[in-house]
Design goal:
The structure is a single chain. By secondary structure, this protein is an alpha/beta fold. The chain folds into two domains: 2-79 and 298-326, no CATH class; 88-286, von Willebrand factor, type A domain (Rossmann fold), CATH 3.40.50. Helices cover 37% and strands 21% of the residues. It has helices spanning 18-31, 50-53, 55-70, 108-121, 147-155, 172-185, 209-218, 255-265, 277-286, 305-326, and strands at residues 2-6, 73-82, 88-94, 127-133, 137-144, 193-199, 222-227, 234-235, 237-238, 241-242, 250-251, 268-271, 295-303. The longest helix is centred in the last third of the chain and has 22 residues, at 305-326.
Length: 332
Amino acid sequence: MTGFEFAHPAVLWALLLLPLWAVWRWRVGRRAAVAAAHLQHRPSPRRHRWPAALVLPLEVLLLTAAIVTAAGPRSVETVERWDDPGVDVMLVLDVSLSMLAEDFPPSRLAVLRELAGDLVDRGGGNRFGLVVFAGDAYVQSPMTTDTHVLRSLLDGVGAHMLNQGVGGGTAIGDALLVAADRLAAARVPGRDQAVVLITDGESNVGADPVAMARHLGEQGVRFHALGLGGTEPVAVTFEGEPVGPDGAYLAVLDAAELEAMASAAGGRFHRVIDATVLETVFDELSRLESAPLTVRRLDFPRSHVPMLALALLLLFAGHLTLAGVVARRPYR
């Protein structure tokens, strides 16, 4: 898009003075006399006096051009730059002690970081947020398109992020509630939202995860639950010590609860067997309605002052020629 404007439009108010100046110039010219009549040039025949009548209009035109040039006329080309279209995805990651189980070598937590990192790396124009949870849920990153920051945060995701001694347990419902609240605050019209939950599904504290998943569905948020865990219970150790009051805690994938959450939200449950599960998630996300996050307008001004300055120079030369040679007036 191209528009025309003046860099200094206030200068144009000087144009209002030109009629007053023209009247004054014409009246002074008519009353002009000379002190020594013998110095006057011989008057031209009446039929050749028309060049003198052009002097005043040319002076008005010259001053008009000077004022317009001083106002800085320019054309401004506006270019709209659209971000890549995408959707908003909140990653909800389980960092509870059960995720330290090693049935997915080297551990469920390591596989969780790999899955989340691949989602971010292949997100394109998607915007990601990050919620981590154990017995409590926290926002590790608000919604952002800065994949480098997200990658750095994901590298630091671990059981040591939260005080497992005080906040032990797994509060999936609380984490989904936090995710829903942040997505609602960051909603952009025309841009769908999704939650990707990566956990072993053993929720034992906080809000009801099925109810919170249903809340996500009512808000129009697509829900994907990725279940990490083997088919058999496995012992968990934390800092070299067995987990549990008697050291006999066994972590197991609660697929039934994750399926119930997915059903309540109208979403999908994916049991993680290998990295191909991400292809299904990517395919689902690609079907969501995407839109650019922002539209940036860049203005590129092109000044017309050089061209008008040249025209002004030509007008000035024409005025000198007309007033000083062609229509030379008597000395005053």
